[in-house]
Amino acid sequence: MIIGELSILLIALVVLILRYLSCRTNASSTPTVRNEGKPIAIILTASVGGGHEAIGQAVRAELERNGYTVHVEDGLRLMGDLINWIMVGSYARMLRHMRWSRKSLGSLMWDVTFKLTAFGWSARLIRLLVGVFFSRRLLPVIEESKPSIVISTYPLVTAALGYLRRTGKLEVPVVAVIPDYGVHALWVSPYADMHLVTSEQSARLVESAGGKAWVVRMPVDPSFDNLPPKSIARTKLGIPQAAFVALVVGGAWGIGDIRGAAEHAAAAGAFTIVVTGKNVGLKKHLEACLGNTPNIKILGWTDNMPDLMAASDCLIQNAGGVTCLEALHVGLPIIMYNPVPGHGEMNVRVMEQAGAVCCARTPQELTNLLTEVMSGQRSLHTPIPSSLTPSVVDAVDSTIARPARATVGVSNATDWLRRVGYGIIAASVFLWLSLTPTGLVLASRALKLPVVGYHAPKGRVSIGVRVSDPLTARAIEQAAWNTDGCITIFADDKAAIGLYPSRKVQFGVSEPSYQGRLHSPFSERRHAALIAHEIQDHTGEYPHYFLPAGSPNITELIEMPKHTHLATWHKTGRHFPDKGLIIVDARGLSPSEAVHHLHSTMDAIRLRGLTCTAINGL
User: Fold this and answer.
1) String of DSSP letters for 508-567
2) Pair 283, 326 in one domain
3) What 3-state DSSP class applies to 81?
4) Measured between alpha carbons, how far is 296 from 316 in angstroms, rounded to an integer?
5) 7-60 pLDDT per residue, tens
6) Are 86 and 8 contacting, i.e. CB atoms less than 8 angstroms apart?
7) Per the domain annotation, does 505 fall within a domain?
8) Which of 357, 363, 477, 560 has CB 3.0 to 4.6 Å from 334, enough for a Cys bridge?
9) Is residue 381 part of a domain?
10) How many distinct structural domains can be found in the chain?
11) Contact 161, 76 (CB under 8 A)
C-alpha cells in the first residue's frame, strides 16, 4: 500500500486545482447526527487485496447477529475514481509483478518507503492530503444512511474519516478495524474514536502513533465456525489421509516467495497445497515449474478455504492479515516464512511477540522446522483466542454509548490557508518526484511505462555508446560487428551522419546537452524527433530508444520521440554495475580512443562473468 500512497502525492497538485475550482468557498457539509433508534452501522471497506473486504463482511455478520442494521460500501471507490485506480489498479499490478527477493530494487524500495512513511511527519502529511482532497466524497453516503457509527477497514478511508471528525463535518463516532498484528503509523488516525486491534502489542503501536485502541476478538466469516473433520475434508479434496499437509497462501494477490515456500515444504516431505489467489500469472508459472511434482497441488482463487484449513496441518504465510485470523480461529498452526519486506516483516515480528506464529526466515529454517514437526521432535502450538476478550460488538456498543465528542471546526480562512499550505507541500513533492529517478521508478512500475534498464535481472547487462562525432560513430559501429548485437549506439544529429545500415547494432537517440540554453521539454521533443528521423535516413531503421542528457526522470517521458523507449543506465564508477544498461560515453573522444573504451568495458563485463545481451533483452 505504501508506494501507492506516494503516487497520491504525484497527482496531488492536479487534484488541488480541479478540486477547488469546482468547490464553493462556503461548502460545508451538513453535520451527521447520531441515530437514536435501532442501531445502524455503515462499514467502509476497499477492494485492495481481499482482506479489507473480508474483515468488513465478518464485522457485518457479527453486528447483524446482534441486532444492528448494517450497510457496507466501498469507501475507497466513494473517495474518487482517481485514488481508487491508484490503489486498486496500478498498485495491484505492481505488487503482483514485483520480485520479492530481498535484494531486488522493488522490494528494497517497498521496505524503505514503508519505514519512511512510519515517521510521524510523513504519516501526518499523507493523512492530511487524503483528508483535504478526498474526504468530502464520503459524506453523502454517510448522511443517507444516518448511522450510529462509521466503521473503516482500510487505512486511507480511516484517514479521510478522521479528517472529517477533526474538522467537525462528521459527528458520529468513527471506529477503525485493523486485523493485522503489526500496526503502521499511517493506519492510525488520532481523530478516530477507536481502533480495534488483535493484541496488546498492537494496541501499544496504535497508542504510540497517537490513537486510541481496544483489543478485541476479531470476527471471521461464519463458514469457519463449523469445519468438517480432517478425514472428511481430505477425502473431499483428494488429499492423502496419512500425509502431513502444508497450506501455502500469499493473500488474494499471491505476493511473496510462494514458489520458494512450496518447493521447500514439498522437499521436506509435506503434501503442499498452494493457493495463488487472483494472481493468474503466478498460478501459470507454478504449474509450469512445479505442476509435475506429485506432492504439490496448485489452486487459484478459491472460496473453499474452510475445507482447505480443515484438511491441513499448518499454514505457511508471509505477511499476515485475515488469512492468519482465520487460521487462529480454527486452531491451525501458522508458520511465517520469508516475510515480505515492510508490512510483512513488521506483522511477523509482532505476531511472534504475541506467541501467535512460528517463524522460518530462510529455506533451511523452513525445511528443518517441517522435518522436526513431521518426525515428532517438535510440535506447532497455536493459541486459541480467549472467549473473555471483548468482541467487536462490545467495542462498538461502548463507543456509541459514550458522550458525543466535541469536534474542532475550522474557520474558512484557517481552512483556506491550511489547504494552500498543503498544496505547496504537494507541489514540492510533485516537483521533486518529477525531477528525480525515484519518481521515474515509481511511475514505470505502477503504470508500465516504456522504460528499459531499471528492472533488468541481476547478471544481465547491455552496452550503450553515446556518440557526438560522425567518425567516432562509424568506428564504434564497425567495432560492434563481433559483439552479438549487445551494443546500442546513441547518436545526436551530428553523429547520425556517420551511421550506416547494420543488423549487428541497435540505434537510439542521444539527447544533446542543454547546458547554456533554456530547457523546454517540448522543444527538446521536437529536436529529438528530428534526430530520430536523421538516424533513420542513414541507417534505414527508426531508432527504438532515447537516452536523456542527464539523470533520467519523469520529464524525459515528455521529451522522448514517439515510438521510442526511455533508456535508463548505470554509471561505471568505483563499483561496476552488475545489471542494466552500461553507458560508454564516447563524446569528445577520437575514434581510436572510443573503440578502446568500448573494448575495456567489454573486457570488464567478461571478467565479472556477466551476460551481455541486446538492450531489448533487459
Assistant:
1) EEEPPP-TTS---HHHHHHHHHHHHHHHHHHHSS---EEE-SSS--TTHHHHSPTT-EEE
2) yes
3) helix
4) 14
5) 444 444 444 444 444 443 333 444 444 455 579 999 999 988 778 999 999 999
6) yes
7) yes
8) 357
9) no
10) 3
11) no
Q: Is 16 exposed, middle or buried (0-12, 13-18, 19+ CB in 10 A)?
A: buried
Residue 188: left if φ>0, alpha if ψ -120 to 50, beta else—which one?
beta
Same domain flag for 276 and 335: yes
**Amino acid of residue 493:** D
CB atoms within 10 A of CB 404: 11
Name the residue range of residue 193's domain: 2-218+395-446
| 561-576 per-position pLDDT tens digit | 888 988 887 655 557 8
CB 34 within 8 A of CB 155: no
Sheet holding 334-337, edge to edge: 296-299, 271-275, 245-249, 314-317, 334-337, 358-360
CATH (domain of 116): 3.40.50
* Three-state DSSP state, 197: strand
Q: How far apart are CA 269 and CA 246, in angstroms?
A: 10
What confidence tens digit (pLDDT) does each residue in 495-517 have? 999 999 988 889 999 988 765 55
CB distance 531 to 493 below 8 Å? yes
Distance CA 262, CA 316 (A): 9
Q: Are residues 149 and 227 in the same domain?
A: no
Residues 200 and 228 both lie in one domain: no
> Would you give the DSSP letter of residue 384?
P
Residue 388 lies in a domain: no
Quick: pLDDT tens for 208-257.
Answer: 999 999 999 999 999 999 899 999 999 999 999 999 999 999 887 788 88
Which residue is listed with cell 540554453?
Answer: 517
Whether pLDDT at 198 is above 60 = yes
Inter-CA distances, 206 with 173, 190, 357, Å: 18, 9, 21
With respect to residue 162, please indicate whether it lies within any of the assigned structural domains: yes
184-200 burial: b if 16+ Cβ within 10 Å, else e: bbbbbbebbbbbbbbbe
Cell triple for 312: 491441513
Q: What is the pTM of this model?
A: 0.63
Same domain, 460 and 419: no
Same domain, 442 and 455: no
Say what the alpha-carbon torsion angle 195, 318, 337, 113 is, to the nearest 10 degrees.
-80
Q: Which residue has the cell 521539454?
A: 521
In a shared domain, residues 524 and 573? yes
